Amino acid sequence: MYEAFVKVSEEIDEEGSEFDFRYSLVDHLFTDALGWTREEGEGHVKFEEDRKDVLCYDDSDPPFPVVVCETKRPSHEIQYGDVEQLEGYMKGVGSAKYGILTNGHSFNLYRYDSDDLELSKVGDVDIGRIANADGPDSLSEEQQTVIGELEYFRQDRHVALGDADYFQKTYQEVPVGYQTGADDEGYEIFLEAIKDSLDELTDVMIRFFEDYKSRDEGSYPKDFLETTFPDWQEWREYTGKSDDAKETFCRETAYIVLNRTLFARIAEDKEIVGRTRLSSRGMANAIEMDGDGVYLEGLLDTYDEIDDHYPDLYELGIFDWWWVSKDKRGQFSDEERRKQQELDEELNYALATILKRLNRFDFEYVNRDILGHVYEDYLPKEERKELGEYYTPLEVVQYMLDSTGYRATESIGRRKVLDPACGSGTFLTEVTERLINHFLKKFDERSVHGLSADDARTVLERVEENVYGIDINPFAAHITQINLLFRTIDLYDKVTEKNPDYTMDGFEIHVADTLSPSTLEEQEESPEQGQSSLQQFADYNGRAQSFIDDRDAVDRLKDDEEFDLVVANPPYVRIQNLSDDVKETYSARYATAIKNFDIYVPFIERGLDWLSEDGKLAYICPNRLFTNDYAEEIRNRLGEEPITHLIDFKDTEVFDAATPYPCILSVDMTKEVDEDVKCARFAEEMEGVLEEIYHLDEWSGSEEAEEYDLFKYPQQRLREDNQDEYLKSWKPMPPDEREVHHKLAESSRFRLGEITDSVFQGLITGWNKVFVGEIVKEEDGIAYFVREGGDEPEPVEKQILRRLLKGNEIDHWGADWEGLWLLFPYEIESGDVELLSQRKLERQYPKTWEFFKRHEEELKAREGGKWEDEEQWWAFGRSQNLSKMEPDKIMTNIMSSYNRFVADTDGEYYFIGGGNAGGYGIQLTDEYAPTSEDHLYYVALLNSQVLEFYHKHISPIFGGKYYSYNKRYLEPHPIVLPSEGDSEEEITQIADSIQTKRQERTDLQYRTSDILNYLADYDRASTVLDLADSIDLDDDDYRQDPMRKNDKMEVDTEEVYQVVMKRGHTIDFGSESVRDFVYDLLKAQDRRLGRSEILNTEVPTEDDVLELMDEYRDDEEEIERLESEAEELQEELDDIILSEVYELDEEDVEVIDEFLEVW
């Protein structure tokens, strides 16, 4: 020790940094003298962190800090604030018993008492005086005492303790919580310990799972697992499928074991249970008496003990599939008994590690605020998504409860609340918080700790009696239980001060399918309803029976209960993801479950049925509720209920996951049905916007609020909207927009659907990787075709190819074809379509048949192998609309942020369809469009501001303010026929001019997109080397990505124009135009280039390059001119259509302009 101080003193530099001094201290004192290592494993010292200067870790699992050393630079004088800083570190760490504060001169030792949370000074010495002594024997008594105290800092005193010693000596070292003046090191260590424990438990549960599955038929663990696991998989269909069901099932099991263990430790430290069985002396004694299996036995014993206090959490259920009781073990063969013992030993070993970790934490002062964050913190967002857990943001939850009047300041003490899709309990935990705060106000207390035991019991029992939740996922229900338990643990702690034997009745949280009929309803429909496999298994297993008992409780809830508030974020699951049995059940039970419904629809119906006479409902669900055809009946039902709020978030993201865009729906049975509905729509995300809206004095928008609109909409009009003969949907909008919308409908006698033969979807090949590609070369009627799924050109007959658009190329007035072709193995005659037979392909299109044969296996394998046994496996996946591509048609992109219509009267283009991709086509009837030219008039209307305004009020919105342009939302467009107005000729002429300019612009854009398009007109009589002024290239491998242009000024003030191939590698030119040409030319190669290849690239002469670049820039200017002229013509056309065709006035036009600026 003495030598260490001498060396530290010798290396101190007054001007040196704190880090330099710290390095010296670690090197000589901590490493050489005290035995700590630099590498993690057997007790290591760490000193690179920003805040805690030097930390010594015991390298347990996880490593806990046991020594904290706060260093200051040698020129810094130690002050009282430095001592407070050290104390804050040590309180935050908790597990460190010893601390050092030093600047290289003054060396101060401290001892920390984690029970009293106090830091006491052991002593201090001057390092220089120790170094100047004649040796260790000449040190003063005080110096020797301080140096002797450093013996407690040695590595071997903190590493590799025996299990019994470990539990006694490390108990309650680290406080779990946020303390004033302390950092959160303890909380971070706790989270790390929990995450590691979860991973290890999951691995053990996977081994249990695999072992049970491999056992012989008739084995009890195998039978029970094979009964529970399929049921769990069925539940998971509602909450999000997992890529690895086994691992997810085992991980959820591990969560529950860990949550129970954690709660047991909290109960010990809060002295809710009488003795410590999992920690401290209780575990140490058990280890000394019987070291085998003590951790698993201790956990199960604690289950039994805490079961007396809160039975719901520890009642054995489906997630206890891994546990086998002693009586069942008695039926095992010797081999099965051996296997079970091996598994128990693995679990016992994992629990030993976990309980050692938890032993070091002090949970005595953990409160509901801290525990409320634990689950969310140790379960990462990505994993919550994988487990099907999507959290409704707190701001949304609070707004929904506020808007229904469920506030702490209101009379909510006896109001019954139900969340029928409770998930992890986001709504119910906030309900519980408000209920507790309500009673704190009533009892005039600031916190639960101020309540009497009797008052605390009143609050606790009100929570148990009035807060209900149902979820089909048992894991989600368990997490809700845990969250509510964490929120009420202080209340329970308070109650047990007076009555230690008090037992909670448990929360009304149930595992069930909310939408399934109750047993009574099933018996009424089918008296001979059979038992489920779970019911049959319950005859000899109590864990399955507990779920059946819970189902009975849910039956009573469904048949008998009414609620004052039903609040939920119901699951969004399309009917395609449900089993046939479930579809039939829901369709029979719920009148609103029609067409391809989403299950949030029957959830709304079920919620309404649960409401009491003065009940309220608040749901956040997809805003497709407003527009989709499957929601027609639920809109009818809601139209007869007193709706108070419709909050449409449009395309703003509310959740932290890819979910449908939501809306908030509120119903209040105390209101009149025909009152105005308070509506909102959001154009942009805005933090705190719901709270801002809630506190507004009046429900109306303001000019300052650009992010949202507030308006009222008559409920009678909602009913009328949903009876609209052209589009049954809700169309809430502000009054001025509604007036314009109504004028448009009134000004036209026809809708688009009434003047068309067909509004049709694009083609679905079923496998674009074969049928779609590019032509790289043509020779004698043969096209060399590179399919999307390949790289090599393959010969096919050009005659069988069609120009193809994928949807995004369909634009305003034109198509930006990107060179894709469709292999079209059909022939069409007089509208009849016939697939080319093998015989005809072999005779007329032999190259194409050879192409198909090469990809036969791939085509047969598409759509899950559906085509494996088909004779004509080269057909498209769908045969609809094959004959509609060549006749006159109007095309549009199915998903767009603006109206994009173009006429194709030459049958030039085919287009892809399917889902939210591709395009839609419109075929007008001969009566209303007898010639090809007539299509321009209708394209003019469809591309106008008028119909864009109309469309965006009736179509569902997607991300980026994209709208759907499918048949449902195209056919209602109001159309004024050309014969009904005086402007047909003028409109058609302007439309033709716009389309012509658009085509000219497209041609020029294609030409300017590649400098190679200009080279054909010039001889390549020079090289890049001839054009360059100077060259600084020495590599033989230049990539495209780093290439850039650079301008620089030389000393003689001459401008130099550079092509920079990469840093320090340049080609200099005296002309900007020449430089730009070479840059574009090299970029167009789209591959790696060598120095020699670059310099020897053949190019026109410098004069020709200058002429070529003038031509290029003229084309760019012409593009701008054409765009400007087309925009002016479009404005002129819009004016005519607005005022003369649809007869709108200036105020109407202003409404449309303001709307389209945002939407």
Automatic annotation (TrEMBL):
Q: A GO BP term, please?
A: DNA restriction-modification system
Coiled-coil blocks: 1105-1139
Report the EC code(s) recorded for this entry: 2.1.1.72
Known catalytic reactions: a 2'-deoxyadenosine in DNA + S-adenosyl-L-methionine = an N(6)-methyl-2'-deoxyadenosine in DNA + S-adenosyl-L-homocysteine + H(+)
Domain Type I restriction enzyme R protein N-terminal: where? 47-118
Limits of the Type II methyltransferase M.TaqI-like domain:
465-655
Q: What's its top-level EC category?
A: transferase
Respond yes or no to whether keyword DNA-binding is given for this record: yes
> What Gene Ontology molecular function terms does this protein carry?
DNA binding; site-specific DNA-methyltransferase (adenine-specific) activity
A Pfam family the protein falls into? Eco57I
Keyword DNA-binding in record: yes
Q: Write the protein's name.
A: site-specific DNA-methyltransferase (adenine-specific)
Organism (species):
Halorutilus salinus
